[in-house]
């Protein structure tokens, strides 16, 4: 059995039209916005037309249920939001593929042995309120929404206000009471890295989420005029630069001579307390995101960076405040941060076989990015399927997966679902 490829591609293109106006090809669909509400209406219509029971839970996640009164349920889906000026594939692909899979099963008269549910998670990106994996983490009980209700977006609107305005008061957002009936969670997603394309492979069988460590660093020194002629400057910018240069060196050494990096370092936020050309800022705040497949490689680099910040700061008489923002286990709501978050090996083997039966070139791959699947993985058997992303570009209008790979990915999702369903 195969999905209807042209119908799938048409749905994917149509979902991309629910976007705030922006640069050509870019999609901006943030949570609790008219664009998102319109996308929900469109997806709900498709799910209803396929004969599913549709509802939006109190968290804003959209569900389409094919209830056959079976004791167990298979869930498939991904997230429907995007980052600002993001692409048309990240998240959207997994949602429309799940819809297409059930649509196809319904029209062929297939009788599932499990209840099947399609989910379009709300606010995975956290782009508006810094609430990564909001919909799935609240759903599994890994995040108390009241703890983030006061977070504000760029316009000063709080998450609590925005959600309530759309009919979703935070007080009513409760986690699912029990996930014991869930036999599997399956998510198709674009790779967001270059490996599959570079190796000419169509399917990535995702082993799990590697290491992700995010830290916020505040360095406080003394505001001085550039004309200060003493030698006792307490310059937080120079401390940060020194530590970041050492970090860059450590990252380069770890990746030297490799096609596939072992670690990536990102300074995503950099905020000096002043931006005057002739003033030493009193303070600089910045973030460091370190990630890679293997915590055993990434963690020592993080430790080395922290030690270097502390060494340089103490030598310069600069105060250090270090905050852990997230790691892959806090995002997942549990686990050992020194180990990767592994998906279900048996389910991964189903994906591998499904791709093999279709003679699709494939490989095992670690995700460098967080996904809703990481909230599900500690609680229900979980598998992710990756398809290539052109030049590894994602979170941009340039994000693109060729039509054939989109369809192959959905076919493998369908075949994996059939294999899991057949197990009873
Ligand atoms: Zn995504």
List the topology elements.
Layout: H1 5-15, H2 34-49, E1 53-56, E2 62-66, E3 73-79, H3 92-107, E4 115-121, H4 134-140, H5 159-165, E5 182-190, H6 195-199, E6 203-209, E7 211-220, E8 224-225, H7 236-255, E9 264-266, E10 270-272, E11 279-280, E12 283-292, H8 295-316, E13 319-327, H9 328-332, E14 341-342, H10 345-357, E15 362-367, H11 372-376, E16 382-387, H12 403-422
Parallel strand pairs: 3-4, 3-5, 5-16, 6-15
Antiparallel strand pairs: 1-2, 2-4, 6-14, 6-16, 7-12, 7-13, 8-11, 9-12, 10-12
Helix pairs in contact: 1-3, 1-12, 3-12, 7-8, 10-12
The structure holds zinc ion.
Characterise this structure:
It is built from twelve helices and 16 strands. The chain is of the alpha+beta class and 424 residues long. It folds into two domains: 5-210 and 340-422, Aminopeptidase; 211-331, Alpha-Beta Plaits (2-Layer Sandwich). The mean pLDDT is 96. It binds zinc ion.
Give a brief rundown of this model.
The chain is of the alpha+beta class and 424 residues long. It is built from twelve helices and 16 strands.
């Amino acid at each position: 059995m195969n999905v209807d490829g042209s119908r799938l591609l048409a749905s994917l293109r149509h979902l991309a039209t629910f976007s705030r106006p922006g640069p050509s090809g870019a999609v901006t669909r943030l949570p609790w916005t008219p664009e998102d509400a319109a996308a929900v209406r469109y997806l709900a219509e498709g799910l209803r037309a396929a004969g599913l029971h549709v509802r939006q839970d109190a968290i804003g996640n959209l569900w389409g249920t094919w209830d056959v009164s079976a004791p167990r349920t298979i869930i498939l889906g991904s997230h429907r939001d995007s980052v600002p000026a993001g692409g048309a594939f990240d998240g959207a692909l997994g949602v429309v593929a799940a819809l297409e899979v059930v649509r196809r099963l319904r029209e062929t008269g297939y009788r599932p042995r499990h209840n099947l549910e399609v989910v379009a998670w709300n606010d995975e990106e956290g782009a508006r309120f810094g609430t990564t994996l909001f919909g799935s983490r609240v759903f599994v009980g890994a995040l108390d929404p009241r703890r983030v209700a006061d977070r504000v977006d760029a316009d000063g609107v709080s998450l609590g206000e925005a959600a309530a305005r759309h009919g979703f008061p935070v007080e009513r957002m409760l986690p699912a009471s029990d996930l014991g009936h869930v036999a599997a969670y399956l998510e198709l997603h674009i790779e967001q890295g270059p490996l599959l394309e570079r190796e000419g492979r169509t399917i990535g069988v995702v082993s799990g989420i590697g290491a992700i460590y995010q830290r916020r660093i505040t360095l406080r020194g003394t505001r001085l005029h550039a004309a200060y002629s003493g030698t006792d400057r307490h310059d937080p910018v120079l401390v940060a630069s020194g530590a970041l240069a050492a970090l860059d060196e450590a990252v380069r050494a770890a990746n030297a001579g490799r096609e596939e990096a072992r670690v990536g370092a990102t300074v995503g936020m950099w905020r000096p307390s002043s931006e005057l050309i002739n003033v030493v800022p009193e303070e600089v705040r910045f973030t460091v995101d370190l990630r890679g497949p293997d915590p055993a490689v990434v963690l020592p680099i993080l430790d080395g960076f922290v030690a270097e910040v502390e060494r340089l700061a103490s030598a310069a008489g600069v105060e250090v405040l270090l905050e852990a923002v997230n790691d892959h286990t806090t995002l997942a709501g549990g686990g050992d941060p020194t180990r990767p978050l592994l998906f279900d090996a048996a389910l991964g083997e189903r994906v591998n076989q499904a791709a093999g039966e279709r003679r699709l070139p494939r490989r095992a791959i670690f995700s460098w990015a967080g996904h809703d699947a990481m909230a599900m993985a500690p609680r229900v058997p979980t598998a992710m399927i990756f398809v290539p992303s052109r030049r590894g570009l994602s979170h941009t209008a340039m994000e693109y997966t060729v039509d054939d790979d989109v369809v192959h990915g959905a076919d493998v999702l369908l075949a994996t679902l059939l294999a899991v369903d057949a197990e009873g």
